[in-house]
Amino acid sequence: MKIQRKTSTKFYIIAVLALIWNLMGVGAYLVQAFMTEEMIATLPEEQQAEFLIEYPAWHTAFFALAVFGGALACFLLLAKKKMAYYLFIISGICAFAHQGYSLATVELSSIVMPIMIIIFCIFLIWYSKRCITEGLLK
Fold first, then answer.
1. Distance in Å from the first CA to the final CA of the chain
2. What pLDDT is stored for residue 14 in this prediction?
3. Is 81 a domain residue?
4. What is the extent of the structural domain holding 88?
């Protein structure tokens, strides 16, 4: 039986920053999903091209699962629930597939953001597992 330790300030800082990160992802998904042709027309040409790319349905589904799953996992992490770890794994797998496809098929102006997303997913999976090991999540 694991003894539950007192939750540190670091835990809450990490969990809140992770939640903000994932909510920004939710916002990006919603913008992409609900951007109308009139709205796209007002963007600079480089950004218009990004919105006009036809992605497979599974790519969009993985994007949604990654960001909404990650946000829910962050709420569960803040609630100190072990289920956060499993949702971070699902979110991470979806993010890897989404970002991997983007890196392999689309000419990106920068690979920094996809790499940051993957690193952040790996960190959240590792951190939530560590919190379980330390007895912070039940």
1. 11
2. 97
3. yes
4. 10-35+56-133
